Write the C-alpha cells for this entry.
Amino acid sequence: MILDGFRLDGKNALVTGSRRGLGAGIAVGLAEAGANVAVHGHDTPPLETAKAVRAAGRRAIELVGDVADAATCPALVNAVVQELGSLDILVNNAGIVRRSPAAEHPEADWARVLEVNLTSVFRLSQLAGRHMLKQGRGKIINVASLLSFQGGILVPGYAAAKGGVAQLTKALANEWAAKGVNVNAIAPGYMVTDNTEALRQDPARSRQILERIPAGRWGTPQDLAGAAVFLASAASDYMHGHVVVVDGGWMAR
C-alpha cells in the first residue's frame, strides 16, 4: 500500500534545534509517522518536544549543545547511536539570524551565522553520513530557506549560509545517492518562528510579506511536517539533491 511507504516505524532520527519552532514541528511529525526522535536544544533541554514525541508513542532522548562548537556535533551523533541504536534520519534545522545593514554588519555576526547555519550542517552531515554509509541507508534533510534563492535584505550572513546549504545538499547527494543515502532540503517560506518575530512585529514589512504570499498567511511549524516525513521515508527514495520549497506560493508570485 502506498501509505506504508511514508511510515517511519523502527527508524531513529536526530532533529537539531527542536526545542520549539520549525524543529519541534518536524520532530513531532516524524514521531507521529513512527520514528524515535532525539530532540536538541542549544542550551536548554527540549522537554516539551520530547513530551510530545512520547505522547505519539515513540522514544525520545533530550540533547543539549551549541552546534557551532565542533565538539558538539560528534557528541550529538554518538549519543543518538548509543541511546537509540542507529541514526537513520538527520534533520539539520538549528539556525540563527542576525539583522543589520550590510555596510555595518559586524564580522562577528557574519562568522556566528555561518558557523551555526552552514558549518554545523556540514559537520553533522559528514558525521551522520559516515554512519549511514556503513549501514547502507539513511536520510539527511537540511533546512534551507527562500534566501537559498533570493538575497533578502539586512541578513547577508543568513543569505550566504542558506545559499550554501542548498549547494551542500546537492554536493553530498552527488556523492552519496548511489550508496543508499538521500540528501535533500526543505526551504521554508515566511514562518511563525522566533527568527521572524522582528518582521512580524514590523507593520510595514509584515504587510508587504503577506501581500506577496498567495496563501495569504504566515506558515506554521506544522506546515513543514508533511514534507519532512516524505523526505525521511521510503516514499522519497528516488529523490536526491532536491530543495523542496514550502512557502505558501511565495516563489510562484
In short: Strands lie at 12-15, 36-41, 60-64, 89-92, 138-143, 181-188, 243-246. The first strand starts at residue 12 and ends at 15. DSSP finds eight helices and seven strands in the chain. The mean pLDDT is 97.
